[in-house]
Amino acid sequence: MFCEKPHHLSNVVPQTIQAVDLHEGDWGTVGSIVNWNYTIEGEKKVVKVVVDDINKEKRLVTFKAFEGHLIEEYKAFKETIHIENEGDNNVVIWTIEYEKKNEDILEPFSYLQLVTNLTKDVDTHHVNQ
After folding, report:
1. Domain assignment present for 1
2. What are phi and psi of 108, to 5 degrees?
3. Could you give the 3-state DSSP secondary structure of residue 103?
4. What is the mean pLDDT of each run of 10 residues along the chain (129 residues)?
5. Residue 68 and residue 42: Cα distance in Å, rounded?
6. Among 50, 16, 27, residue whose Cα is nearest residue 122
7. DSSP character for 58?
8. Residue at 14 is within a domain
9. I need a surface site. Which of 35, 43, 54, 92 has the fewest CB within 10 A?
């Protein structure tokens, strides 16, 4: 879903993701530019990302932020979503790489909480299908 159909997330978790719009390129393609509109800590935010890497064999996608609220606080912000099989289950691993603009900027714990909740909500949606 995060690689080829992230725009479906607004239907699955509208309380968190309000819209995911393709700005340039094609869904599921490296180099595509995507706008994410979401709510974090009760505030609506927007971030524009480029799809930096896709590895379908490893079930991995990486997004690199280059515009929006994350870039206001971080020099660099990249997230990788990797899905691994563990028996009959899938495990979602989020890796967030960032560089703060200065030492006064907080670690992105609220963003980590957002993606954790998002993962749980998407899992619940799939289980109920």
Report:
1. no
2. -80, 50
3. coil
4. 83 93 96 97 96 95 97 96 90 96 95 93 82
5. 17
6. 16
7. T
8. yes
9. 43
